[in-house]
Amino acid sequence: MAEVNIRRRLLALIDIFVNETDEDHQLSLQDIKEKLKLQFGPDYHVKDSVLREDLDAISQTLMSLTVNNGPHGKKYYSFQERLFERYELRMLIDAVVSARFITKKDAKRLISKIKKLASRHEAKKLNQNLYVEDTVKSESDTLKYDIDQLHNAISENKKVLFQYGTYDVNKKFVLHRDGEWYSVKPYSLIWYNDFYYLVGEYEKLGEVRHYRVDRMRRVTVKEETFKRPTINIGEYVKKSFQMFTGPEEWIELQVSNHLFNVMLDRFGLDINITQKNDDSFVFKTKAAMSDGLIGWLLSWGSDVKVLAPDALIERLKERTEKMYHLYHS
Predict the structure, then answer these.
(1) What's the rounded Cα separation, in Å, for the pair 310 and 88?
(2) Distance CA 306, CA 255 (A)
(3) Which residues are paired to 324 by β-bridges?
């Protein structure tokens, strides 16, 4: 049997506590010695007094071990003070699973890493690979590198270049404007409806716009820097319905009472609400006049009525008439 020095033994003990113990799984000295034999061979032996000294040293310098008394004064050891609680690891995994900009391959790899932050017993409870398979995921292997580049560009106030496109009816990715390059001052990356968006100023028109990162191609960070303006990203997202942009206008809505909390979630607690009658309330807010807004309003059916402006009411009339004729022709 090869000699096992104290460094190897301490590293093995740390590995045992990280992977084998938690709040529900504790080890006695005899259990620990059996685990060491699995690593160093069946003939490996360490005295109880030496092992206790090792555990004291680990607990005082590297990781806090919990010691509980069992029957007949027998002591049980475990590692419980982990960086993440199980519910926090669950949220991280759920975020990875739901993010459609992450490829299936990367999602599995990230989930595997997250599970290593728990004991092997807890990791089994976190296993949800089935949902990774069933979720519509990105096919872009370069997306993670694009996101990293954009984060760096934002932190260093550097302009970025990229091409942009969408899929056609044949599922072929087609670049917009014959592959024209977009020069953008990047302000922020946001995660909205399971996709990453870049918010920044499109230099050609001097307008603040947003771009889905999974639809960007050949992302390049320029050496040219810019002075970042003051912009409220939260307000920008709130006014860009379904991430569609357009000119901002005040809109007035009459909404059924049962959607009260839905409207608070969408617009925040600071909206000014007036009770219209026993069944509905009225409020005003600024919003981008866009197809996204039209679609959002129509999604609530007769529970939301637009009172102003007239131009928006006319657009809704046109859209609802088209829908009527589609099913009554």
Answers:
(1) 48
(2) 9
(3) none
